[in-house]
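Inputs:
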Amino acid sequence: MRALVTGGAGFIGSHLIDRLVARGDDVVVIDNLSSGVVAFIQSHLDAGRVDMVEGDICNPDDVGRAMAKDIDCVFHLAANPDIRLGTRITDTDLNQGTVATYNILESMRLNGVKKIAFASSSVVYGEDAPLPTPEDHGPCMPISLYGASKQAGEGLVSSWVGTFGLQAWIFRFANIIGARGTHGVIYDFIHKLKNDPSRLEVLGNGLQEKSYMEVGDCVDGILHVMANADAPLNLYNLGSHDTASVRRIAELVVEVTQCHDARIEYTGGDRGWAGDIPRARLSIQKMLQTGFDVSMNSEDAIRHTATCLLEEIGLE
Amino acid sequence: MRALVTGGAGFIGSHLIDRLVARGDDVVVIDNLSSGVVAFIQSHLDAGRVDMVEGDICNPDDVGRAMAKDIDCVFHLAANPDIRLGTRITDTDLNQGTVATYNILESMRLNGVKKIAFASSSVVYGEDAPLPTPEDHGPCMPISLYGASKQAGEGLVSSWVGTFGLQAWIFRFANIIGARGTHGVIYDFIHKLKNDPSRLEVLGNGLQEKSYMEVGDCVDGILHVMANADAPLNLYNLGSHDTASVRRIAELVVEVTQCHDARIEYTGGDRGWAGDIPRARLSIQKMLQTGFDVSMNSEDAIRHTATCLLEEIGLE
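Outputs:
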């Protein structure tokens, strides 16, 4: 199979490519390297297993160049990774999320590509959902502009299934963390401690409580579900069994970095920023029913991630 | 109150303006007159009760001109009215639906306008929803590009509520029909009989079964719900109590037009076009609980509409 991975030089994309290459797939990457890093996939590029198209999925011509390479299946992961950005700049998620997803789907239609896996997010559920949240929760009322763009992407994917006969797998991710992370709370905490090991500022009161999934589990889950669910449109939450508080993450990062003298300071309020969801946990019953389970729960994934990112970022 | 009505010269918009003017509101209209008709609101323009901005909501500058007029509440009704178009031209709903809705919301943010009513649609539910479909059905997986754009619009609205403190009312409409209709099945049937009174072609097998709501009931419902639901985000289906088949609509149009010799011919298949939903009926319990009920059910609304449109279109 020849796969096109959007955002393939990024955090989740590069881990997915490790698995695709390992199982013998050919891989084409499109990435604008805004947050992706070529080094993440350099070994596969050197081995000739990955074909890199440096381009922007906001540009239909760039998408067309990648899609013309005899693609069997698209893994559409690229997006603006910074949820908070939407509170200041309102068209980033629209353009890099919604319109870019349209570009992907339209190019698939024009090139006769029939399968797509789409990375959506738990944030589409909004803040009033029951916890753990099942896939059939409704109505989905996202409170962040990032969430709105993921919901819009889901609708575009489902309309291309209904109108043009695509087959699709939509995955609503928990917080995905792990090695090569380029953003997120653990990444931020380590950078803060690198700047000033005497204090660690935490946005909000630290009681935000969310579910974390290790990125290796995430990409294994994607491939397992795709091999075991074959409806025209397949919708799956991907997450772990439990949650961790931001307060606990701060403690774990302090422990792993051995910045034992750091004062943990909270900015206060029950959310980190406007559009942050204080509590999130996905129901993973449907995922488990495919026979897939995670290898790490939230706290193990956090400790593992902090260890990996500490080595990558360093404190000096 | 000063209201901005997008698509105010259109079918539903012009009826809404009749009500707003009658209750004493000031009204600003933005309409590009692609399907809207100035004559629909000419009497209010002549009376100085309505301020018309001829402009396109796809253009942020046009939206800004209208939004700067000291607006208290936006009624965002403008959209591509032709659901079938998405099967041939794939960016119409994206631009005239999703991106245009972004333009409206962003202009509201920039101008400090805090209230919006958004016209969504039953088609966001997709084709696998239980009937009648309640507002909390999930997952919503639209099968038309129009449906995808309405879902995207809902998500944008809810994210502006969650991030920027807007108050919103989202209405998921049944098939809205009535005088001044500019599209839809009854409009199409009358035009077909005008072209050839000896035959009436029906897309699909005629067994498509949907709920119809008269436009006067629709706009009364909007205003009633807004006066009686005051959450930050309010989501309501608007529809009638029952359904009618396309076959029955064809018979009623033949009866009203007195084209009794017309052969009704079916193109076959269980849907009219790719992305058409064969069966749709909204749960209206939540609407009824506000104390509002419709004055017409589907068949009465169809007969009334056929009578009005026959007079407007004529058969000669």
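Remarks. The first helix of chain B runs from residue 11 to 22. The interface with chain A takes residues 86-87, 90-91, 94, 98-99, 102, 106, 109, 124, 126-127, 135-145, 147-149, 151-152, 154-156, 158-159, 161-164, 233, 235, 274-275 of chain B (CB under 8 Å).
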